[in-house]
Amino acid sequence: MTVDSNFHCHPTVCAVGDDYHIMLPVKTAMLVWVQIGDECFYDESNGILRSNVDIHRIIVPARALNTARGYTLIYRKIINRTPYFPKSEDEVAIAYPFKPLEKTEGINIYHVSDAHGMIDAPASAAGFFGDDLDLFLLNGDIANFSGSIDDLSTAYKIASAVTGGSIPCVFSRGNHDLRGPSAENLAEFTPNCNGKSYYTFKIGCIWGILVDCGEDKADDCIAYGHTICCEDFRTREEAFIRSVIAHADEEYNAPGVKYRLIVSHVPFTYNKDVSDELGEAPFMIEIERYTRWAKILKENIRPNLMLSGHLHINVVSMPGSPYDCKGQPCPVVIGATPDTENNTFIGAAVTLHESTARVVFNDESGVVSHDEIIPLAGR
Question: CB atoms < 10 A from the CB of 247, how many?
Answer without folding.
Answer: 12
